[in-house]
Amino acid sequence: MKLKNVFIFMVIAILVSGCTTPYQKKDFWNYTLGGYEDSTIGEGKYSLKYVGSKQTKMASIKKMWNRRAKELCGSDKYIADFVEGSDTHSQTVGYAGVPVSSTHKLPAVIGTVTCNVVQAAPDSGVLQKKELEVKVKPALDILEEKSSCIRVIIDNATKSGSVNFQELLDCASSSGVTDQDQIEDIATMLTHMGFEIAR
């Protein structure tokens, strides 16, 4: 009777290991099916591993790794730093009083995800941004020299992701910058930096 139970377990284990990996959180009890495993390692930064079954292709594992990265970040704005590798898992389970040990070396994608990253602009956009920085530099210098309000606005925008246009106008006015075109150029530069302008 005991040997029959061991045989049934082994057949089930072989059948389960023959399946491709569905998108799921990794489960200790169904380890050979794979899944994701993640942990927070900093603000907006995660350690992420996606393990596949022996039959799952690496391209599919990478897709599922990226799917989980998007879920963690809430968008596709993130930096992915990962390697293709493998994950080894050993376990011993007792069935009908008989210990059965197994070791599984499964394909995996292992890495880190850093969220809320503004995607790099194309070359023409980079040139336009540099030209804009040169154009607004005199106004920014005046704002920084006469008042710290522009630094406060940028610090707040770093936390919230947006700049209140009225606050920018007030900051410029209090520093003696009244040229509307210069203020609009500063707002455009802040947009290029990835901040939303709330008007």
Compact overview of the structure:
With 199 residues, the chain is α+β, with helices and mostly antiparallel strands. Helices cover 46% and strands 29% of the residues. The strands form two sheets. The protein has a four-stranded antiparallel sheet with strand order 1-2-4-3. The chain has a two-stranded parallel ribbon with strand order 5-6.
Please outline the helices and strands.
Blueprint: H1 2-17, E1 35-42, E2 45-51, H2 58-73, E3 78-95, E4 98-115, H3 123-146, H4 149-160, E5 162-164, H5 165-174, H6 180-192, E6 196-198
Parallel strand pairs: 5-6
Antiparallel strand pairs: 1-2, 2-4, 3-4
What this model shows, in words?
The protein is of the alpha+beta class and 199 residues long. It has 2 domains: 2-115, no CATH class; 123-198, no CATH class. The chain is 46% helix and 29% strand. It has helices at 2-17, 58-73, 123-146, 149-160, 165-174, 180-192, and strands at 35-42, 45-51, 78-95, 98-115, 162-164, 196-198. The strands form 2 sheets. A 4-stranded antiparallel β-sheet has the order 1-2-4-3. Strands 5-6 form a two-stranded parallel ribbon. A hairpin with a 2-residue loop joins strand 3 (78-95) and strand 4 (98-115). The longest helix is centred in the C-terminal third of the chain and has 24 residues, at 123-146. The radius of gyration is 27 Å and the shape is rod-shaped. The chain starts with a helix and ends with a strand. Residues 6-18 and 119-124 have low confidence and may be disordered.
